[in-house]
Design goal:
Length: 105
């Protein structure tokens, strides 16, 4: 099993036990909640590489946050240049979120 897989499993387990503060990886200018939002976006992108990103509704369900709360957090992360929102040409009503290069780092 790769180190990245083990890291993902650890972060998911810590999230379930609400003990993220103990082993929270420090990232300059990124609060804990935003870090885990970025993590969820990254995990989804790796599992679904054919998709242009993750829908906000799916992100809401995965994090257990309301859609307005997710949107508010995404606004903050987007201002930092860590994520971008995009639409597909086939359905402009659906908004996808994906990590930018700085967000991946």
């Amino acid at each position: 099993m790769e180190n990245r897989d083990l890291t993902n499993q650890l972060l998911e387990a810590l999230g379930k036990f609400k003990r993220q503060r103990i082993l929270y990886p420090t990232a300059s200018g990124v609060p804990r909640g935003e870090f885990f939002m970025l993590h969820n976006i990254d995990v989804y992108a790796r599992k679904h590489p054919e998709e242009p990103g993750i829908k906000i509704s799916i992100l809401s369900a995965k994090t257990g946050m309301s859609m307005p709360a997710v949107s508010q957090m995404l606004n903050s992360i987007e201002e930092k240049g860590l994520v971008e929102r995009c639409m597909t040409k086939s359905d402009r009503r659906v908004v996808y979120v994906r990590l930018t290069d700085p967000g991946n780092r």
